[in-house]
Amino acid sequence: MASHVAAIDQGTSSTRCIVFDRDGAIVGIDQREHAQHHPRAGWVEHDAVEIAARLREVIDGALAAAGVGAADVAAVGITNQRETTVLWERASGEPVHRAIVWQDVRTAELVAELGGDAGPDRLRAITGLPLSTYFSGPKARWLLDATPGLRERAEAGEILFGTMDTFAIWQLTGGPHGGVHVTDATNASRTLLMDLRTLDWSEACLDVVGVPRALLPAIRSSSEVYGEVRCGCALDGVPIAGVLGDQQAALFGQACFTPGEAKSTYGTGSFLLVNTGTEPIASRELLTTVAYKLGEEPAAYALEGSIAVTGAAVQWLRDRLGIISGAAEVEALAASVQDTGDVYFVPAFSGLFAPRWRPDARGAIVGLTAYTSAAHLARATLEAAAWQTREVLDAADVDLPALKVDGGMTANGLLMQLQADVLGVPVVRPQVAETTALGAAYAAGLAVGVWDSLEDVRARWREARRWEPTVARAEVERRYARWRAAVERSLGWAG
């Protein structure tokens, strides 16, 4: 049988396709960026038509780079920016609006209204989530309310809803000509509309949020055949057989299959997930989410600490302040000073996610003096990623022997050392850093027999580098207290 698996990673800033062999090694990759649209403060949008074009481009590019064809690929896996929301016409495939990105906070007033007297925890017992601008259900409701006549069309079945996995599958399996309208349980668990225990849309949640069921895709497992690629690209005829939201895909790619195992992914934002087994664990500070569901097997669950801005803060240094010309330069600049000069940067550009869930927070730089330089700010930006991860790990209340890490920012050795120092445990990076795409590939490959079992997958995980803590705990705790004081100064800024 074919021994390669392709994974499409539809991310916040780009779309990639990576071809893996049976050992989990990368044999071909292609990546294309897409535009970020900010029509108002706190609003973030993507052009779904542009992303659909990128899907086809990266597929063709990755297979060409790997030197393989469709006959060599056993299956396709998809992973995606989870809460980003798009509505489109069933008949034409045209989006009714730009996709609303997970970082967008335009639904703040709506979310407060939905909470009513019960507050943000109104749906937590069903969904595992607080009412927040983060999730996709309120984004869909905003689109229905903002576009005249759209709700009536949605109720008539003319409009389709999807997070980006659903949109990608529909496009790749034929679009208006027979496209498959599905999502998986991990992505559905991020909508504020799914019952965590039944893994079906909750009528109570649909009623509260105000989203008609006719709009929604079917919820399937994370590892099964959904349909074949039929979009005129190099993968035509290959089954799409795995779907995982990006952070769950990274957990899967890191082989965190045992309760208590955890990973942290560093990208535009950062996300720490802890596998909690086959029972959902309630938390008021973290999210309870589906980790993965393999075919007919019971779902595995996770606790998640979602951080809105880490890598995006480095992009801000580059694009808005101009103190670096490329993201890779931040490490050398930050390493040119021994510390931050007691400067703390809270990058709450659109509020704070876990563990505080404060949409009223805004970015703050605390401790500036005439001595502060661009290098101090660069180091404070890296430290902000480490401090925020410390906060969510504290909220998870787990005793980790080590933290597995992945994502683009793990190439920054200084950040990884800072993270080990802040947490007081080793930080471990795998040989294959692209664990998000790898997790989607594993889910797809398991469905079609490329890999036999989770143990078969686990055997392919390899450590590449480890960072040990080097700073005295008393000094870390002193600086942690200063960080938390800086965070307090960021709260309540947006009315």
Can you give keywords for this protein?
alpha+beta; Nucleotidyltransferase, domain 5; globular; 23% strand; 495 residues; 6-stranded mixed sheet
Low-confidence stretches: none
Approximately how much beta-strand content do the residues carry?
A: 15-25%
Overall number of strands: 23
The first-level CATH class of the domain at 4-254 is given as: Alpha Beta
Give the gist of this structure:
The protein is α+β, with helices and mostly antiparallel strands. The protein contains 16 helices and 23 strands.
Plain-language structure description:
With 495 residues, the protein is of the alpha+beta class. The chain has a domain at 4-254: 2-Layer Sandwich (Nucleotidyltransferase, domain 5), CATH 3.30.420.40. Helices cover 33% and strands 23% of the residues. It contains 16 helices and 23 strands. The protein has helices spanning 48-66, 108-115, 124-127, 136-146, 150-155, 164-172, 185-188, 203-209, 246-253, 311-321, 329-335, 374-396, 413-423, 435-448, 454-458, 473-490, and strands at residues 4-10, 14-20, 26-33, 45-46, 73-80, 85-89, 99-100, 159-163, 182-184, 194-195, 200-201, 218-220, 223-228, 239-245, 262-266, 270-277, 287-292, 300-307, 344-346, 364-366, 403-406, 427-430, 463-467. The strands form seven sheets. Strands 17-18-16-15-21-22-23 form a seven-stranded mixed beta sheet. The longest helix is centred in the C-terminal third of the chain and has 23 residues, at 374-396.
